[in-house]
Write a structure and sequence with these properties.
Structural class of chain B: mainly beta
Number of helices of chain B: 0
Order of helices and strands of chain B: EEEEEE
Distance between the termini of chain B: 22 Å
Oligomer: heterodimer
Largest sheet of chain A: 8 strands, parallel
Largest interface: A-B, 38 and 22 residues
Largest sheet of chain B: 5 strands, mixed, barrel
Shape of chain B: globular
Radius of gyration of chain A: 28 Å
Radius of gyration of chain B: 11 Å
Shape of chain A: flat
Number of strands of chain A: 15
Strand order of the largest sheet of chain B: 1-2-3-6-4
Number of strands of chain B: 6
């Protein structure tokens, strides 16, 4: 099987190189962007064996006072030095040139890997509750558009509207204001910006707070006036507009107690177009259903506190699908000195010119946690709205909860949702791939073992079936290029075209792999890779048919399993027939 | 259809603060009015208002009540 160890060596070296260079680049970027360090303090690492006299001479020359950080560091000649108000950059340059000094640098404050450098992150208890850092290892929301249908979003400087500081690095797309019928959908209340922040606040920018799917694009859709209320007609229009303009997730932190057929039809329309619709369950503290949350097409989200209790205001009852942090401003359960609201950057209520970090409570704050997690899942390749809901529900936290009281399936766990599905679906496709190999080996002439066991065929099969899906499960840091290497080949297009492209029907069909296999049959080595890819993609499609996790453009949701099963059979059939019928000397 | 409602004005601290009317019958309404003088927490009022079935709100504590006229009770 290992006839080409050099080829495998080269592939592994390339992957390792990518991984290392990306991490070095990330470190350099964080220094450039101003990672936090202890002001007025540097680290000076003297060459081992440097005498106390020599250290004293250097200190005197530069007017600094050194002291050891610990007993160990004294022996290792690793010293801290106070610099006062002096120009640190110039001092470090001069010190680095001293023959006795091995290295001199600022005393950086390092955080655990995965924690963002946003300074107010420490007050975002809600993000820790949903295990967002674990989820970021798998996805940050790239290629997904989330529509925030609300009071607008403070995303631009226009007229009375101002762009918020901590939304400056967030991407926005196709805004629309249905209240004033204009393309400028700024926020004149503060609610919509806060909701948008939980979903995709600019993150790792050294400022403010973080958002869950911070590489997702936000589509600001204003349907509510500054008062916080709006017409059903605008809301229904907003939902259809979002679905027609590429949103894959829709957040509706609004509602009312009356059913509306117009609104339900709009939700059905968006759902059929593949949108995950997330709604706040309501704030009346009772069991009365709130709409649109109570519609079957929507995910209804109740609110919990930091101690996992349902918030006093949260709507309960059997219509709840899942719970998420919504806060309780009457408590400081976590003892961080602030009431346990949800902290995001927004404008002061009703004043679009202000820029503040505000604690809010409500099921409106809970819903965007689910919408953000849905965006992470869609970005990771789980694009079917029903599958996204099932994944979030089946991975939710349930320990010690009375689920019937209004938690739905339990409390959202974004980290577990991403991790468990990556493992489950990845191993399923890998198992299908290995089963197919065994089948082909048994049912085709014995000479085909040379093809089936070749590194090219096996590489093609692995990339086609599941990619290196296990890498994010092994590493503590995100794997660079994982939207390619860690997914099966049929999903690579989403990294380029996004998750809402109508082109996906082409990539989720047998056509590209069939063409590749057919064209490469006369080529000795290419044929091995192409046949491997064909068999692998057949396994990926079989997995998609079993899990029903992918939305295919133009194919009705009820027929998607059948679509994948049929395409899997075509590809597998072609691989099988090729191996069976090819003459031995090819 | 406009009806008469009696109750207290309240500022709810949910969703960043929104104004509601709690009636003597225990109903809660999200207030919709352009009259700033109405928004006084604790004020007892008698109001002529219309329940708007065609409106929704961020408050989500009850139906939106469009206030036509009101006076202190």
């Amino acid at each position: 099987m290992m006839k080409h160890p050099k080829l495998y060596g080269a592939i592994l070296t390339f992957l390792l190189f990518l991984f290392l260079t990306q991490n070095v680049q990330a470190l350099e970027k964080s220094l450039e962007e101003g990672s936090p360090y202890v002001k007025g303090e540097i680290i000076v690492d003297f060459i081992d064996g440097t005498t106390e006299e020599e250290i004293a001479r250097v200190c005197k020359k530069y007017g600094i006072e050194t002291y050891s950080n610990s007993l160990y560091s004294r022996d290792a000649k690793l010293m801290l030095a106070r610099t006062g108000d002096r120009n640190m950059e110039r001092l470090l340059k001069k010190l680095s040139r001293e023959p006795a000094v091995e290295a001199a640098e600022p005393n950086f404050i390092l955080q655990s890997f995965g924690a963002p450098n946003d300074p107010l992150y420490k007050y975002q208890w809600n993000m820790k509750k949903i295990n967002v850092e674990k989820a970021w290892k798998h996805s940050t929301g790239k290629g997904v558009t989330v529509a925030v249908i609300d009071t607008g979003v403070a995303y631009e400087n226009y007229g009375k509207f101002k762009q918020l500081e901590d939304l400056r690095h967030t991407e926005f797309i196709s805004p629309y204001n249905f209240v004033d019928d204009t393309v400028h959908a700024g926020d004149d209340n503060g609610h919509g910006s806060h909701v948008a922040g939980t979903i995709a606040q600019s993150t790792n920018n050294g400022k403010g707070v973080c958002g869950i799917a911070y590489h997702a694009k936000i589509m600001p859709v204003k349907v509510l006036a500054a008062s916080g209320s709006g017409r059903l007609s605008d809301i229904a229009d907003g939902i259809r507009y979002a679905a027609d303009n590429g949103a894959r997730v829709i957040n509706l932190s609004l509602g009312g107690p009356f059913k509306s057929e117009v609104l339900q039809l709009a939700c059905k329309y968006a759902y059929k177009k593949g949108c995950v619709i997330v709604c706040a369950a309501g704030n009346d503290g009772g069991n009365r259903p709130n709409y649109p949350a109570a519609y079957r097409e929507c995910i209804s989200v109740s609110a919990v506190r930091d101690d996992n209790q349902l918030a006093f205001y949260s709507t309960r009852g059997p219509q709840i699908d899942i719970a998420a942090p919504g806060g309780d401003m009457r408590e400081d359960y976590n003892g961080d000195g602030y009431n346990d609201g949800i902290l995001q950057n927004t404008i002061k209520n009703g004043n679009p010119q202000t820029d503040e970090y505000v604690l809010l409570q409500g099921t409106s704050m809970a819903a965007p946690h689910v919408a953000g997690t849905a965006a992470l899942l869609v970005s990771a390749g789980y694009t079917d709205p029903k599958a996204v809901k099932t994944i979030m529900q089946s991975s939710s936290f349930t320990k010690g909860l009375d689920l019937k009281s209004g938690y739905g399936s339990g409390i959202l766990d974004a980290g577990k949702a991403l991790r468990s599905r990556t493992a489950l679906y990845g191993f399923l496709k890998l198992a299908l791939c290995m089963g197919s190999l065994v089948f082909l080996r048994a049912k085709t002439p014995s000479w085909t073992g040379k093809i089936l066991g070749s590194p090219l065929f096996l590489t093609g099969a692995l990339l086609g079936a599941c990619g290196l899906f296990f890498l994010p499960l092994l590493f503590t840091a995100p794997v660079p290029g994982q939207e390619f290497f860690c997914r099966d080949v049929s999903q690579w297009h989403t990294a380029v075209t996004g998750t809402a492209s109508p082109l996906n029907i082409l990539f989720y069909s047998a056509a590209p792999a069939l063409a590749l296999m057919f064209l490469s049959l006369p080529l000795r080595n290419m044929k091995k890779l192409a046949l491997g890819l064909g068999m692998g993609i057949a396994c990926a499609f079989a997995g998609n048919a079993l899990t029903a996790s992918i939305d295919v453009a133009f194919v009705p949701q009820a027929l998607e399993r059948l679509w994948f099963a049929a395409n899997a059979l075509i590809l597998f059939g072609f691989s099988y027939a090729s191996l069976k019928l090819l003459p031995e000397k090819t | 259809m406009t009806k008469k409602y009696k109750g207290h004005i309240e500022k709810s601290e949910i969703e960043g603060g929104n104004w509601i009317l709690r009636t003597e019958q225990g109903e809660t309404f999200q207030l919709d009015s352009s009259d700033e003088k109405l928004f006084r927490s604790g004020m007892a009022v008698t109001a002529d208002g219309e329940i708007r079935r065609d409106m929704m709100s961020i408050g989500m504590m009850g139906p939106v009540l469009k206030i036509k006229n009101w006076e202190k009770a």
